[in-house]
Amino acid sequence: MPSRSWTPPFPLDLGAVLGPLRRGPGDPSFSAEGGIWFAANTPCGPGTLRVRRTDVVEAEAWGEGGQWLLDGLPALLGADDPLDEFVAHHPIVAEAARRRPGLRLGATGRVWDLLFASILEQKVTGKEAFRTWRELGRRFGEPAPGPMPLKVPPTPQRLLGLQDWEWHQCGLDGARRRTLVNAAQVAHRLEKAAEMRSRELLEKVPGIGVWTSAEVAQRSWGDPDAVSVGDYHVAKNVGWALTGKPVDDDGMMELLEPYKPQRHRAVRYLEAAGLQRPRRAPRFSPRDYRKL
CB within 8 A of 267, min separation 6: which ones? Predict the structure, then answer.
């Protein structure tokens, strides 16, 4: 079992940095029990990583991809994040940044696992997406190496072999399924997006637009400017935090223009500070495609 210790040369909030990798409660590939664990597909094969914070960062890894995950630990925890270049243009953002000095943008260096999860989250409630992620992971993900009972997210090859009834049992509608199949068919080429830092490469796949590519870029290469345009909540929350009223996507991008090329970081600070508009309308009822 390979392991390593690493001393970050900056304040580090481990939970805030790795939290975006968790896809809802019951995520079969993520655990916060006794540290932060996650299972992943790597260029070397499946691997599991556990990260704990003591005086330093302690990490242990299992599986064929374990050493690859350990080698990427500094980048995963934000060592390549250009945080020092960020300038706050609103007092509320400046205060959020002051209160969260350990909030950095990490980079997994991989695309498929993140793209898979983000496609499932397209145009549905979080509850729907997380349920489908759990079902697909538990049914078709391989057991993760190591002592924690996790599942490695299903590979593109595994998903391409699923039958119609298997997709249906996991609650996936036709539109997201088609996009997922489109992505799985060219997944080996899409990994280059992390090296090239290219959202445009991801958007060449039918069904993948700016929202999905941004969600991947934020986590895969720690893109500080990848704003989730098209999200149901983000623009409204940013508008409310900065102006006291919700705005649409165009209004949000206008407000965030001074932060370019670190617009996503400004959004992350607002989210971390819990600055969300009051919700008065009833919540959407999630759909269960397994019953259709």
Answer: 227, 228, 234, 238, 256
Mean pLDDT of 78-93: 97
Least confident span in 48-52, 162-166, 263-267: 162-166
Distances (CA, A) of 292 to 124, 130, 171, 180, 270: 16, 19, 9, 20, 38
Cα distance between residue 249 and residue 146, in whole Å? 43
112-138: average pLDDT: 96
* Residue found by looking up tokens 């706050």 in the block: 88
Q: For the chain, report the end-to-end CA distance as a whole number of angstroms.
A: 46
**What is the reported pLDDT for 289?**
47
pTM: 0.93
Q: What is the pLDDT of residues 165-215, one digit of tens each?
A: 999 899 999 999 999 999 999 999 999 999 999 999 999 999 999 999 999
SS (H, E, C) the chain: CCEEEECCCCCCCHHHHHHHHCCCCCCCCEECCCCEEEEEEECCEEEEEEEEECCCEEEEEECCCHHHHHHCHHHHCCCCCCHHHCCCCCHHHHHHHHHCCCCCCCCCCCCHHHHHHHHHCCCCCHHHHHHHHHHHHHHHCEECCCCCCCEECCCHHHHHCCCHHHHHHCCCCHHHHHHHHHHHHCHHHHCHHHHHCCHHHHCCCCCCCHHHHHHHHHHHCCCCCCCCCCCCCHHHHHHHHHHCCCCCHHHHHHHHHHHCCCHHHHHHHHHHCCCCCCCCCCCCCCCCHHHC
Mean pLDDT (whole number) for 215-236: 97
Residue 117, pLDDT > 80, answer yes
Q: What are the strands of the beta sheet with 3-6, ordered from one edge?
A: 3-6, 57-62, 45-53, 36-42, 30-31
Omega before residue 224 within 30° of 0, cis: no
